[in-house]
């Protein structure tokens, strides 16, 4: 039987031919956790008295939610995890100066065809390179850390096709929001989405990562881009070697298919208080904005910072604007290309590699009555701080244009 990417990956990982609905035990290629959930993972292991991991080289840990620690409790958690890393002799540990775990996984570890599990819902991000990547709770991740295995229900594969090329100021975010507008936030429950890109270079890895990242907002078990030339180029550029590509068999069967004509997309916005409350930017433009956040594991990559820099070059923002490249690597590249200087000159506050304001943690928590435009992935009540704040999710061009004008702005109207 011709297999989808989902079936191919999970058949290899479980050692038998799988079909949607099967409950399987799959071997994990990478098991990861961060500071906030890592604490619980280690606690579960310690309570069970287990002092070994299945394979040191396959455990990845990154500090991001509490980086740098905003309070004593966060610092305590990091101290505890550093001790665990030392005791176990884990080589793939990324302290507060590396970046957001999902971005670190994408840049340094994830490969086509792998099974990746991590203690964070946005683990779907690694699907951008064609890995079956799923977020899990701390107990499941503790079990996978110990055994190198996890149990899964094989999801039903659904195909999305991206045709043509996106227009000016249209990015991966608009594709993610289009899917949410069309299908709503719970449609893909029990499914995996496999995205085929007709014209690989027109939809680069940064855009793919945004869409995969928001796969969990669609409730999909995984959101994978079918590996192609762009996957190869990305891994070659970031790591210096060419990966082997895993692709679905011709004639593989999907439960359904949906096509997006990239050239027909408009900049979209998710209005409060739900990620699927999607509107065109023109429907909400003119609303006054108190703070703009450009960053997170959704949109903190080089192209996001580049777009913001292009819009803000030689101008001044009219509202608070916080920009956070998702990793050290992204910060460094943005700095070398002059984007950081542009953003600082425009009046933005810039730091690197933290979840920070995305989940209302620190570095720009939203206050009562405030309106925020954010490039992150969630906007439910209280997500970025006060229950009385309103968060509009958008792509980096809409965010930067809104910072420039002090109100929600269509970037096509100004640049
Ligand atoms: C803290 C963590 C468990 C959570 C997640 O799993 O997604 C966070 O990263 C988020 O984005 O809300
Ligand atoms: S940046 Fe936001 S969405 Fe991503 S892992 Fe951190 S808190 Fe979660």
UniProtKB/TrEMBL annotation:
GO MF annotations, alphabetized: 3-isopropylmalate dehydratase activity; 4 iron, 4 sulfur cluster binding; metal ion binding
The protein's Enzyme Commission number: 4.2.1.33
Cofactor note: Binds 1 [4Fe-4S] cluster per subunit.
Highest taxon, organism lineage: Archaea
Catalytic activity from the UniProt record: (2R,3S)-3-isopropylmalate = (2S)-2-isopropylmalate
Keyword Amino-acid biosynthesis: yes
Cofactor entry: [4Fe-4S] cluster
Xref: PROSITE patterns: ACONITASE_1, ACONITASE_2
Signal peptide: none
Similarity section: Belongs to the aconitase/IPM isomerase family. LeuC type 2 subfamily.
Name this polypeptide is given: 3-isopropylmalate dehydratase large subunit
Lineage: Archaea, Thermoproteota, Thermoprotei, Sulfolobales, Sulfolobaceae
Gene expressing this chain: leuC
């Amino acid at each position: 039987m011709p297999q989808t990417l989902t079936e191919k990956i999970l058949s290899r990982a479980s050692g038998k031919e799988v079909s949607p609905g099967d409950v399987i035990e799959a071997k994990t290629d990478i098991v990861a956790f961060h500071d906030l959930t890592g604490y619980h993972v280690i606690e579960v292991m310690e309570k069970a008295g287990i002092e070994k991991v299945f394979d040191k080289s396959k455990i990845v840990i990154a500090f991001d939610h509490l980086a740098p620690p905003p309070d004593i409790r966060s610092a305590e958690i990091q101290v505890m995890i550093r001790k665990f890393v030392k005791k176990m002799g884990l080589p793939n540990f990324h302290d507060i100066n590396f970046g957001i775990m999902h971005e670190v996984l994408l840049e340094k570890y994830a490969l086509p065809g792998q099974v990746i599990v991590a203690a964070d819902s946005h683990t779907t991000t690694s699907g951008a390179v064609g890995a079956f990547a799923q977020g899990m709770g701390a107990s499941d991740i503790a079990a996978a850390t110990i055994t190198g295995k996890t149990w899964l229900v094989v999801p039903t594969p659904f195909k999305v096709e991206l045709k043509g090329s996106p227009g000016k100021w249209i990015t991966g975010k608009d594709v993610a929001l289009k899917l949410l507008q069309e299908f709503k936030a719970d449609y893909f429950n029990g499914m995996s989405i496999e995205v085929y890109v007709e014209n690989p270079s027109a939809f680069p890895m940064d855009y793919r990562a945004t869409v995969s990242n928001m796969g969990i907002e669609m409730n999909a078990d995984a959101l994978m881009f079918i590996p192609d030339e762009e996957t190869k180029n990305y891994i070659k550029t970031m790591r210096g070697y060419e990966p082997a590509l895993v692709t679905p068999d011709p004639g593989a069967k999907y439960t359904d298919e949906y096509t997006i004509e990239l050239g027909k997309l408009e900049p979209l916005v998710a209005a409060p208080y739900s990620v699927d409350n999607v509107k065109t930017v023109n429907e909400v433009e003119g609303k006054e904005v108190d703070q703009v956040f450009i960053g997170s594991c959704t949109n903190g990559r080089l192209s996001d910072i580049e777009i913001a820099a292009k819009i803000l070059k030689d101008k001044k923002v009219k509202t608070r604007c916080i920009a956070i490249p998702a990793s050290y690597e992204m910060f460094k590249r943005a700095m070398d290309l002059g984007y950081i200087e542009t953003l600082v000159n425009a009046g933005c506050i810039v730091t690197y590699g933290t979840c920070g304001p995305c989940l209302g943690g620190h570095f720009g928590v939203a206050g009562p009555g405030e309106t925020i435009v954010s490039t992150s992935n969630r906007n439910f009540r209280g997500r970025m701080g006060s229950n009385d704040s309103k968060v509009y999710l958008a792509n980096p061009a809409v965010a930067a244009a809104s910072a420039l004008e002090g109100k929600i702005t269509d970037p096509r109207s100004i640049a």
